[in-house]
């Protein structure tokens, strides 16, 4: 599949702690900067690319947890789907939608009265969550979450495992107009038994990712869908005494496919040991700005936080990887 992909070999991001590194790679900001919680890439895509009147959520995270909307607002927070084989659970009211709607309307009236007296972000987020849920319960588009509509052959191609099913669900959601889908895959923290664990992880990753790219291409959707495969950092170029590799943000690789970018290339180079970036170092903000550019998002555009402070979509000092757009 590499003809449809580009590798960014020069990732050098400076954050070796999982929490801080995940935050940086998801938001383009260092954690704690400005004392605010920044929106994740999914929330940024929802903010800039979503259709506000769509009954489907604009940002879905399948098979794990992600970072939220920060100051972009609760309407851009992800809908978490824990088990892709079950989709969004509890979409059917036990006693019918008519009775449910009466109760939901009563709750909305009570919360609206409270918000009229006192603005509170937690109450607003609660109300938005209920509104989105009830809209989805009434929508025929909820079938996008149903993997049983896929053939047995297609499901086998992606893999009968959680990650494979999550990638297949992601393809279905993209086809139904969801702006951003995130599919976490845990287990890459290989401090022990690196060889064995990577072999098992790749036996799930490789078929699913290849199937996703091929499926999007066959359906004519790859050019307008950007597939991003990334971690929070890389692993040490040497194997430790316990047979594992440790955290290493100094030199690592990300992969981009589709999205109209120039593919079939490698950007950047490390030394022969994979320890130092020798050509085209890419920081987290460079990566975020590059992804935003591929998505057609103006990353210099400012959000306004709840306290009225303007904040750029991506922190200043970014350098877009222009080789992808030549």
Summarize the structure.
With 326 residues, this protein is an alpha/beta fold. The protein has helices spanning 18-27, 41-49, 97-117, 121-138, 152-158, 162-175, 194-218, 284-294; strands spanning 5-11, 59-62, 79-81, 180-182, 226-229, 234-235, 247-248, 252-258, 265-267, 269-270, 277-279, 302-304, 310-312. It has one domain (2-87, 146-325): Alkaline Phosphatase, subunit A.
Q: What is the number of independent domains?
A: 1
User: In CATH terms, what is the fold-level topology?
Assistant: Alkaline Phosphatase, subunit A
Largest sheet: 4 strands, mixed
Number of strands: 13
CATH architecture level-2 label = 3-Layer(aba) Sandwich
Q: By helix and strand content, what is the structural category?
A: alpha/beta
For the termini, the CA-CA separation is 21 Å
Q: Mean of the pLDDT scores? A: 90
The first-level CATH class is given as: Alpha Beta
Count of DSSP helices?
A: 8
Contiguous runs where pLDDT drops below 50 for at least 5 residues:
none
The rough form would be described as globular
H-E string: EHHEEHHHHEHEEEEEEEHEE
Strand content: 5-15%
Radius of gyration: 21 Å
